[in-house]
Structures are given as structure tokens and as C-alpha cells.
Amino acid sequence: MTSAPLPIRPSLAILVLCSAVQPFALNVLAPASPAIARSLGTDYGTIQLTLTLYLAAVALSQLVVGPLSDRIGRRPCIIAGLGLFAVGSVVGLLSGNLVVLLLARMLQAVGAGTAFALTRAIARDMGDKDEAASILGYVTMAMVVAPMLAPLVGGFIEKTQGWRTIFALMALVGVVATLGAMLKLPETLKRRGPPASVMDTFRAFPVLMRERAFVINSAILTLTSATFFSFIAGAPYAVVEHMKAGPDVYGAFFVIMAGSYMMGNFLTGRFSQRIGAARMIPLGIVLSLAAVGFASLMPFVTTWAPALLFVPLILNGIGNGLTIPSATASALSVRPDLAGAAAGLNGFVQLSVGSAVAFASGALTPLWPPAFLIIMLAATAGSFVLAFGGRSWRADRPAL
Predict the structure, then answer these.
(1) pTM metric for this prediction
(2) What pLDDT is stored for residue 190 in this prediction?
């Protein structure tokens, strides 16, 4: 009996490209938020809907795109998603009012979120658990590099060409990614039985919510991520409008913060097997709490400047790099048989809470510039309480 031919494997480059579109689009517009508000005649808090609705649309797409791709394949879903992202970018370029701009961002979010989620499914299609983890490690690096460079690029373009040119750049990225997927992305889905339906995925959610370890790890992941969403919603206003620095200054400093997050991810990859995820989580939270607490004091004790905001938060980036991957791995290890549903639920909750936090931060920061830091501090303190307040959750599952 002859063995079945091995499936054609997509290149790492195309997986990186598909994965990077979503975080790039999320962050590239942030430095231009004050300028967009002025251009469309609205306030900064309202313009933050471009962020919160983007996050909400990505969150909802996480719940349905996996089961859909199980029915019709990964490739057509990703191609359609990237094409939708390109269309949304063109709509944003031509938008003349806030409603059209918000519609454009939601189209971008659904399209880019689809590609982002399914690159993980493709990695799982391509090999066993260890090989998939190796592939996803490289793809995650792109996820860090994209938001690291995006504010720098967005700030420079806004200062020199105007905010609409940012949408032109995103449209170009969308077209290139769509063509790349059409030419270089093969179908990787192996059909071994009836595909799961959306309702099958939903039925797994109550089972997961009864697992204490899953709930605690997911809550830590969500709160830790919320600090980032609060920052990207409030910091551009604080830097550009309150500190009177240019959007390019925000972008340049953001590169340092993203680099510190990359360092945290590297340390997790290097030492998590030796130290263990259960120890990496509280270590990262302690670092983050110290960093955010110090940064939160600066507006009250001295003249606030960009360096006094960003430099202390370097330690927060390292701490988040320790906590987020460790909490994610711990949550998905509680019920390995429901790992797909756990990933979808995690992503939905993480981004839903993130969008609410971003909205609150964007609305409150113009009224009181340090507000986004106080929200970050509250979220980090919540993670600290969860990590240290009830250690019995660690023993719920041996996988932790």
C-alpha cells in the first residue's frame, strides 16, 4: 500500500506576511489619532472608536473563522480575508466622515483577523505539536516586529504626508498579501471526518468555563493584554497633545517598548522549560507592576515627558513577554482536547475586554492625561491578585 503524498507546505514567509497584517493595521494608525480627530471635526475620545471597533470585530471573527475554515478550507478564507482588508483600506482612504471611517476599520479588522487566526490553524495542519510550536514561534516574532515598526511608520507618514496616506499604505499591504496568498499559499487542511460546526465550538465553552485553572489563566492573560490596549488608546494623546511631542516621537519610543516585549518573549522561550510557566507568570507580573507603578508616579512628581513615560515601561514590556505566552500555554493545557475552542474563547475575551479598556482609556485620557496609566495599573494589580491570591488553582490540572 502506498503512502499518501505529503501536503504541500506553505513557506514561512507567507505565513509571517498573513500573520503580521492584523497587528500592523492595529498599531500603524495610533500616532495619527489626534490628526484624524481634527480632520474629521470630532474629539479624541470619539476617534478611539476606530480602535475599539477594530478590536471588537477581530474578537468576533475569532469565534467563527475556525469552524468556517474547517468546512471550506484555510486557503479560501485567508484569501477572502486579505482581500476584504484591502477593500477596507481603500474605503478608509476615501472616507469623508467618521461613520465611513469606522466601517473601513471594521472591514479591515474582520479581514486581517481572519488571516491572523488561520495562520495558527495552518501551523497545526503542517505537523505535530512540537513542529507546530516551532513554526508558531517564528510567526509570533513577526507579530512583535509588526507593532514595533507600525507606530514609527505611521507617525512618520502622518507628519510628512497626512493620515490618509497611511490607509494607502495599508491598501498596498493588503493587495500584496492577497496576491502572495493566491500564488504561494496551498491548502493544508486534511479532512479526516465531518468538520466541526460553529455550534460544536460553542458547546465547548461552558465546559472550559467550569475549569478553574482555565478561568484564572485566561483572566491573567486578558488583564495583562488590557494594559497594552489602554496604552495604545491613551498614550498618543498624552504624548502628542499634552506633552507637545510629534507623532514621530511616539513612534520612535514605541519601538523601544516593543523591543522589550520581544526580549520577554525570548526569555520565555529560553527558560520556560527550565523554570516552568507557573513561575514565569508571577515573575512577569511583578516586573510589570513595578514598572507601571513607577511610570504612574511620574506625572505627579515631575514635569511629564516622553522619556519618563516610555523608559519605565521597558520593564513592563519584558514582564508582559514573560506573562502572556506562559498564561496562554497554561490556559490551553488545561483541556488539550478542547485546545481549539480554548484558543477561540481566549481570543474573544481578550480582545473584547481590550476593546472596552481601549474605549475607556481613549475617552478619559483627554479629560485627565494620566488616566490611561491608572487603568494600566489597575489591570496589572488585578493580575497580581489572581497570581498570588489563590495558589490552589495551579493544582487543578497536572498540565500546569
Answers:
(1) 0.74
(2) 72
85 contacts 24 by C-beta, under 8 angstroms: no
Amino acid making up residue 399: A
Do the beta carbons of residue 45 and residue 140 sit within 8 Å?
no
Q: Give the ranges where 2-48 is alpha helix by DSSP (H).
A: 12-28, 33-39, 44-47
C-alpha cell read off for 248: 514621530
Instruction: Check if the beta carbon of residue 256 is closer than 8 Å to that of residue 318.
Output: no
- Weakest mean pLDDT among 50-64, 122-136, 144-158, 317-331: 122-136
Name, in order, each residue with C-beta under 8 angstroms of 25's C-beta and a sequence gap of 6 or more: 54, 85, 89, 108, 109, 112, 150, 170, 173
Q: Which residue has the cell 471594521?
A: 106
Domains of the chain (ranges, CATH numbers):
8-192 (1.20.1250.20), 197-400 (1.20.1250.20)
Residue-wise pLDDT tens digits, 41-78: 888 778 878 888 888 888 888 777 766 776 777 889 89
Which letter, b or e, does each residue of 293-319 get, where b requires 16 or more Cβ atoms within 10 Å of its Cβ? bebbebbeeeebebebbbbbbbbbbbb
Q: In this structure, which amino acid lies at residue 356?
A: A
| Residues 339, 341, 342, 344, Cα dihedral to 10° | 120
CB 285 within 8 A of CB 380: yes
Of 170, 165, 193, the C-alpha closest to 70 is: 193
Write the Ramachandran bin of 304: left for phi over 0, alpha for psi from -120 to 50, otherwise beta: beta
Contact yes or no for 173/24 (Cβ under 8 A): yes
Distance of CA 89 to the CA centre of its chain: 19
CA distance 364 to 362: 6
CA nearest 289: which of 318, 262, 263, 269? 318
Grid cell listed for 335:
483541556
CA-closest candidate to residue 234, choices 1, 15, 54, 48: 48
Q: What is the DSSP annotation of 154-202?
A: HHHHHHHT-THHHHHHHHHHHHHHHHHHHHH--------SSPPPHHHHH
